[in-house]
Amino acid sequence: MDVAGLVYARSVTGVWRVTMKNEKTMKHNARVTGLMMAGVAVLLTAGCERPAPEPNTPAPIAPAAPAVAPLPAAPVIPTNPLKEAYFGEQHLHTAYSLDAYIGGARLMPSDAYRFAKGEEVDVGGIKLRLHAPLDWAAVTDHAEYIGEMYSTMTSGAPGYDNEQLKQLRDLKGYEERERWFLEYVQKPNRGTKPEHAPFFAGHETTVSGWKQIVAAAEQHYQPGKFTTIAAFEWSAAPGGANLHRNVFFRDMKVPERPMSYVDINREDGLWAWMADLEKQGMTVIAIPHNSNASKGMMFPAEDSSGKPLDRGYAEMRSRFEPLIEMMQVKGNSEVHRWFWAADEFANFENADSLGDYSGRDLKKFGKHNWVRWGLGKGLAYQKSLGVNPFHYGIVGGTDNHNGTPSNVEEDNFLAGSHGAADGTVELRRTGEVGGWLKGKDLNPGALTGVWAPQNTREAIFDGLKSRETFATSGPRIKVRFFGQSGASEPPADYRTLVERGYAQGVPMGGTLKAGSKGSPTFTVWAMKEADGANLDRIQIIKGWVDAKGEPQDRVFDVVWSGSRKPDAKGKIPAIGNTVDVTKATYTNTIGTGELIGTWTDPTFDPRQGAVYYVRVLLIPTPRWSTYDAVRAGVPLLPGVAATVQERAWTSPIWYTPAG
After folding, report:
1. What's the pTM value of the predicted model, to 2 decimals?
2. Same domain, 23 and 136
């Protein structure tokens, strides 16, 4: 490449970007530059004529022409055509969220990104730092309060001197904070007609606050090293049912202000707004979360007007919502032990006390709150409508309200997740996060892994949109999942698995079409994080619908550590447990660091649609509450698990029959 054809332009991020100029333009620019330089020389000669030197005196030395600083080289961004797993946060709140600020959050979006990159921050007097930096992060503050918080935190802003905001800035005790939360967060936003707080000073404050949030994302973007994504949360909660969505943009083409639950009352209205953004050249997706608190409304049979779901609804939902959050601090939304008794690993961070608040009786809504059921129900709509409205890949997040993205390690839950509500050991043991759940039912949250060729905003976003994603309950487990039609030889190694997976089949998030090669074959691989707990097993969960259109599922063990053998019913014995709960320690004397395997569905029916996803289980390790108890010298919480089996879930692979 001719260096003369490169033009360097520095963006507001400080990143040098390189583009090519065509030959004609370059020649024109050269002619213009030459004429300009000649003109400058004439002017200098005419206006700056020096007297002739005296005889026998040396002529003055002309000043040296200033050296031209070399142009910085364009950054070289590492690229892997077989893709890398990039770990990040897709659900995080800072002081720009009113509920977070009420709880004591004072970290700003820029602080959150600093924390994500490995810097230390202070949360309520507690120093926190991630065990390892993240690869990417998004700040998703509540759109409903961005304007109010801009007024609160920006001296001279419209509304800054409002008496109520003066009170807000001076909140002290937990009870006072709780009253504020109930009055200005829960009360106006858990009905069918949400409204802004009385101290809202107008949309111009939302515009200004949004600019600050987007600017922080642009400031901290380091292509190839750390990616930021402009995002916000649309926090719909009609009748207390959680229908929240996080909204993400592929680049810095973003709207003037985000839309809130006050502006748009239901999810189909949000998709219509997003469709309009697409017409303006923006690329946008939404990710719903907390289906476990949705009162059965996350996977509905009717649209917002009360009509049965139709093809138009299904198309819009599938188009704009490629992913769903599997787990966060308020519980695991995969399954619940009450409704999946046959799944021996369903008793994991079930967050039972969610059902004690806002009429969210978990037993009343049964399986309809849970992602596994939703994935199965989507198959019924695929058959009846020709489109699957619940065509969801899998991600994880925290919903942390301290401004500390992906602070998910069980031993690092020192400041909790919701400020004053769970910021001490005692509050986590005996308190509650107002309007949501009891402190003992919290967990540190989950993490998203994205398979992408490079760590850039576009590549991470594209990986999310294509559903080549997985969630973990915290550990940075890497997991691969491929499917192909017909039989396949077991891969000899990881690279063979990946190369063959892309060449002959589809990765997680893909769809297998009906063919003549028989039952599909799936290949799986998982690796523990370098300093983490060993792996127990890899499972594949299959979903389908029966003749009545009701979701069914079955769990298959695919590959496991050690020499364990299935019993007469095909069940693999438990891995064992090395945890010493008196010290909150464990050892890797059981399990293994890596698993790889191949599986063919023994129940496959080519006429029946199906959905398959992977679940990876680790050996038992101490739960956060056990670390708390040991550090504080207090007893373990009665009725609360002292250990957990951390895990990962992949996005599914779907099978679609002919016709």
Report:
1. 0.88
2. no
